[in-house]
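Example 3.2
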Amino acid sequence: MAGRTAEPEVIWARPERTGRGPKPAYSRADIAAAAVRIADADGLDAVSMRRVAAEIGCGTMSLYNYVPRKEDLYELMVDLISGEYEFSAEGCGDWRADMMDFARQARGIMRRHPWVVRVMSTVYAVSPNALRVLDRVLACLEDLDLPAGTKLELFGMVNGSVMTYVANEQAIAERTRSVPWSAEQEQAVRGAYMMRQVGTGAYPHLAALFAGGVAPPDDPEAAFDRMLMRLLDSFEPKN
């Protein structure tokens, strides 16, 4: 296909500038920041090479000299917002508390930049800030008595669980924006319908569940923390 290289390449392996010629007018950070501004304001679909070029004030074809592919642009964007993680200068303490802190920060970043859930991938795990985050997390897990591969799984499962949780929050929020009633009103109607169906006797296990008493939903922050704690419990070394 025209415009594509014959072999895969990593944008971070390409020098941002060569040793010859004038200094480039724009940095990768400039380009990434422009793309993030567009995505934050108008969504990922609004991010195009043409619009990013206009945002930084260069020609579209000139932008390709800095970022060969749109996939590379996404990688620059993900790396830029991965730089928003803040880690304590005192170092790591309790691994569970550290992982909870990482997960809460990840959720905050995904909420500030809702588009990232669509493009975040393990393919982008080699960017500078992604490597910094992973290295820091592994440092916090250093005293955890688990194989190295299991620690990587822990990191991946926490990150993936946060992405799934945020994606569901986004879907609910989008649904609420598209209808003329509140989320609470819709939940009440759907809950009442479900209880009528359970009452028909067609779903005996659900009937038994509700007969035993189901706790009412609490605030999203508590539910998020509970989900994470149960996940971390599964990685607690067995005595």
